[in-house]
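can u do me a favor
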């Protein structure tokens, strides 16, 4: 097991002991001080997590060291689950997985697609999706907040 430490701007240290590999932590300040929203294994995951929590920041974590521990059966099962997740994460870095969010982001760049048309395409691609026009609007808002120039939809605006 490895112990990771995230140091907040006020100097407080937040640790996590795990077999996973982490590079960043997302921190959120409250009246009681800094708290960890999550530890992430990649910068892009930390940035995504930061986008989910307004006013949060991310910091690089440091590895404090590796310790030997007696594993129980429950810990062994957790380790197997984590290994599966790590393999999926590694596959994701090789070739970005098409997710509902990424698909919506791509479709939002076509100014002639109305939110309802985007929902129809998402449901066609992901039959179990519970996407609504409101969730498409939410993705657009987050993209704009992150500096992406998402075309504005106009009512009754159709291609010439």
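np, heres the sequence
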């Amino acid at each position: 097991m490895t112990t990771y430490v995230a140091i907040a701007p006020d100097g407080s240290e937040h640790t996590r002991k795990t077999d996973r590999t982490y590079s960043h932590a997302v921190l959120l300040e409250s009246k009681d001080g800094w708290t960890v929203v999550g530890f992430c294994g990649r910068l892009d995951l930390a940035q995504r997590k930061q986008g989910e929590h307004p006013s949060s920041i991310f910091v690089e974590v440091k590895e404090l060291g590796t310790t030997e521990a007696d594993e129980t059966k429950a810990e062994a099962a957790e380790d197997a689950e984590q290994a599966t997740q790590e393999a999926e994460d590694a596959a994701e870095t090789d070739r970005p997985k098409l997710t509902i969010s990424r698909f919506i982001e791509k479709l939002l760049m076509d100014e002639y697609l109305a939110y309802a048309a985007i929902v129809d395409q998402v449901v066609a691609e992901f039959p179990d999706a519970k996407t609504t026009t409101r969730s498409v609007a939410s993705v657009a808002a987050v993209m704009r907040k992150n500096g992406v120039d998402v075309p504005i939809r106009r009512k009754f605006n159709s291609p010439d």
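The mean pLDDT is 80. hope that helps!!
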